[in-house]
Write a structure and sequence with these properties.
Helix content is 41%, strand content 23%. By secondary structure, it is an alpha/beta fold. It folds into two domains: 170 residues, P-loop containing nucleotide triphosphate hydrolases (Rossmann fold); 178 residues, RecF/RecN/SMC, N-terminal domain (Glutathione S-transferase Yfyf (Class Pi), Chain A, domain 2, Up-down Bundle). The chain has a six-stranded antiparallel sheet, covered by helices on one side. Helix 2 crosses helix 3. The structure holds adenosine-5'-diphosphate and magnesium ion. The site of adenosine-5'-diphosphate has 14 residues, from helix 1.
């Protein structure tokens, strides 16, 4: 996958921008708060339909304006393609693929693929479970549009169930309807998570051995709400049973305490939970291994190599780890940002300067 051109209108601190990119390594240099992360965010929005760093779409619209637009012209195995995302303060997001407006957001999934890596990702192991779920959901959604669809349907049913739980006397038949919908979606979500994490574990084990020069063994496991049931219908059945079991306490708390929205990825180093027992340095190294594995896994699972977005991560890594990172992104078009104060400049196919929402 190769971006040919990025265009922005009123996106964050950009008023208008049209920028052509090189196939290999594109380097963006600029001081803080000039618009480097904003540019990578805009590209990522074309992959996932939303930002990697914020929930509210409107935040991305330039202050004082009502709409923002991001457009990408890119090339994949099918040839030249286009994607355009328009975000409005007072209206629904509009997404066009090859100039045709799409009806549902999941149609965008898998059209354009990107992996983003920012300094915050280095706390992936230390963070709460929500961050690790986001980590797997972002890539799985892009690679498997049906996963995204299942997630959306699960989230919808969960919202409805939670709303009912807040009523004084909710109708049990209504609860049951949403629980069935959740169970059906959860069975699909879980089966994708199982295979994603098991392959991630294989890759992360190998990569981590290299990253820490064989000093540690890394293990990545799926902490699923239902253990050891692979079959879809048996899973759904067990899920429903558990839901019913949790009803009483859920009603008391007014929230759904059981389900795939509570799951986690367990990371351990030498057999001990990295989150609880590893040092800060070990946690960051393990997070790097996970990120590198993610890049490798996405390369493996999509026929189109995703575009890699590296935001300010070079300064966070020593020379050896930088080399491993460059190894992992070989052959992919890459957009890298840095401030120039890193004391190290990668060999770029093209370097750009970012200053106050303009790129030269
Ligand atoms: N919606 C917005 N409208 C206008 N400017 C914005 C908006 N959101 C962020 N900014 C500005 O963008 C700048 C930060 O850009 P960013 O890409 O994060 O910087 P960096 O180059 O350090 O990565 C800040 O000056 C911030 O005020
Ligand atoms: Mg930044």
């Amino acid at each position: 996958m190769r971006i040919k051109n990025v265009s922005l209108v009123n996106f964050r601190n950009y008023s208008t921008l049209s920028l052509s990119l090189e196939d290999g390594l594109n380097l963006f240099v600029g001081e803080n708060a000039q618009g480097k992360t904003n540019l990578l965010e805009a590209v990522f929005v074309c992959a996932l339909g939303r930002s990697h760093r914020t929930k509210g779409d409107a935040e991305m619209i330039r202050h004082g304006y009502d709409t923002a637009k991001v457009g990408l012209k890119f090339k994949d195995r099918l040839g030249n393609r286009e994607i355009e995302v328009e975000i409005a303060r007072h209206a629904k997001k509009r997404i066009k693929i090859d100039e045709k407006l799409i009806a549902r957001s999941v149609e965008q999934m898998g059209v354009f693929n990107a992996v983003i890596f920012s300094p915050e990702d280095l706390s992936l192991v230390k963070d709460g479970p929500g961050e690790r779920r986001r980590f797997m959901d972002m890539e799985l959604s892009q690679m498997r549009p049906l996963y995204c669809k299942a997630l959306q349907s699960y989230a919808r049913a969960l919202r409805q169930r939670n709303a009912l739980l807040k009523l004084r006397e909710p109708r049990l038949d209504m609860l049951s309807i949403w629980e069935h919908q959740m169970a059906e979606a959860a069975a699909k979500i879980a089966s994708w998570r199982v295979s994603f994490i098991s392959r991630l574990n294989e890759l992360a084990g190998e990569i981590h051995a290299r990253v820490c020069r064989n000093k540690e063994t890394l293990l990545v496991e799926y902490d699923s709400c239902i253990k050891e049931i692979a079959d879809g219908s048996a899973y759904a059945e067990e899920f429903l049973k558990q839901m019913k079991k949790h009803r009483e306490s859920d009603l008391r708390r007014g929230i759904t305490t059981f389900g795939v929205h509570r799951e986690d990825i367990n990371v351990s180093i030498n057999g001990r939970s990295a989150r609880l027992f590893a040092s800060q340095g070990q946690q960051r190294t393990a997070a790097l291994s996970l990120k590198l594995s993610e890049i490798a896994l996405v390369n493996e699972l999509t026929n189109n190599k995703p575009v890699v977005l590296l935001d300010d991560v070079l300064s966070e890594l020593d020379e050896y780890r930088r080399e491993l990172l460059f190894d992992a992104i070989q052959g992919a078009q890459t957009l890298i940002t840095c401030t120039g104060a890193e004391g190290f400049m990668p060999k770029a196919d093209r370097a750009y300067t970012v200053r106050d929402g303009r790129i030269e």
